[in-house]
Amino acid sequence: MLFRRRPEVHVDVTGFHAAEAPAMQRSVLEALGLGARPAPTVVPARLQVERGADTRLVLVWRNVIVGFVPPDAAAPLVAALEGAAGATLVVDGAVHHVDGTWRVWVGPVPTDGFPPVPEGLDTLAAPDVTILGVPVRRPDGLR
Length: 143
What we know:
Helix content: 10-25%
Number of domains: 1
């Protein structure tokens, strides 16, 4: 069948923050699809784990890449991907707001609050604000 949906394999993980949240804010906001509505503090997410460039694993939510699996959390997911044999690997998660940034949490939502975001998790710079590919800068040099 040409358009047959791949079977899903659900994996339980202990919980971690996805990497590169500042660089992925546009994608996260697109996946949230809030429009003018206010967002709840925690939005449940069903995340797909897929292979990215090199050895990276990407997290896909609502058909949008919203983050990366940090290297220290990748080993069990790589093993699950290898054992999935063409199935879609799915993990539970949530999207929550921390200090002005939407973060992707992978794993069950902690009952006593999310742990702090580890230092050095985000290495990519946030993209410039553009309109049709042209960078937009305010006169005072702020973005």
